[in-house]
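Sample log: Sialin, putative.
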Amino acid sequence: FFGLVQLYVQRLNLSVAIVAMVRMKKIANTSGDFDWDEQVQSMILASFFYGYILLQLPGGRLADRVGGKYPLGAGILVSSAMTLITPFAARIHYGALMAVRFFMGVAAGCCFPAMQAMLAQWVPKAQRTVISSMVFTGSFTGTVIAMTATGVMSDSEFLGGWQSAFYVFGFSGCVWCIVWFTYIQNKPTEHPDSPGFSVSKLSGGNVVRKPALIPWCAILTSPAVWSLTATQWAHTYGSYTLMTELPNYLKNILGFGLTQNGLLSGVPYLMLSVLSLLVGWAADLVRRRNIATATTIRKFCDAVSAFGPALCLMAVTATPCERTLAVFWFWLAIALISFANSGFNCTHVDMAPAFAGTLFGITNCIGNTTGIIAPQVVGFLTETHNNVDNWRLVFYITATVYTLGAVLFIAFGSAEPQEWANQAHTPREGETSSSYTVS
């Protein structure tokens, strides 16, 4: 949870800080240190994702092989170091800033697959949804902190204003890494004996075995995998559009100041965090009582988390300059994304627990190409005319992407253990399987 908080405050603080860093020609009486146009800003925001997609698959495979502790910890440590030097890089040249963001993305790329591998080792099947939701809520909590705290710090004189966000969040990430490397283990069997802890408390259910060779052909020809990839791509596109570009819309179209901008951008993610836990608890309750299958639960939650935001964005296009209504629809759209943590985000572990890191690496690598695409789309549409009509196009495109991804997952998705995942672990004659159980 706290690791994902660190990842997201470091990833997203630039989305708010850049509003203070750049002199906006359209807005009178604004100050900033840099004269970057919309296209340059989009390139800077996208540079993180050029690096981020590189280690998704290798990081997932590494985590499945050696455990998630060191890939996750090392990724956040390097990301923290890059965050600390961000202000220095920005003053050299925007190209230097892009390079720092690129390497930050490379470091962060292995973290989510490593987290999936950790969840597959530690989380009992009966509590998978609620605990996974609790962990992934860290990303939303980090978003709240990044949006609100960065806005406040950028509007102050503390450590140079906008620069302070990078110093504070970089330092906090380093502190987290010390705690992580000191106390965390890869799996229950590595945990030292301590009062109240017993591996037997985690036994009795699904078997998590040492990973075998990956059945690449079966994975790459699986409709369930491709539909999961499609909906993750769609959700990631929508989420990045809202997370990285909403502060831009709130300032340039709705006219909110820095502190207001940060609060309005961040508060809905607090709502999302709370709702994510409630939805996860409800989904696990439905599953334990056999009211619905895992596949039905995942598809329902995915549908709400995609169709809901799509409809809200369409509503924004109908009232684009009504500040109160627009903010309400944005908040509702972000809150409904909470259902995704009980939807596609849990499906990797459902389908193939021992390959969860690798599978998430595949889908997240493809999904995070949207981190490159989304800012470029917004930059292209708004560079010449940053106005309501062009932002309508941004929201139309985002709503369409959400809808198509959900339709494909509903049609072809599955949360049942895949045959190829089970066959990959069938011991050969005379071979024993190294395993322990997590229920």
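Observation: The CA atoms of residues 16 and 147 lie 6 Å apart.
Observation: The longest strand covers residues 206-209.
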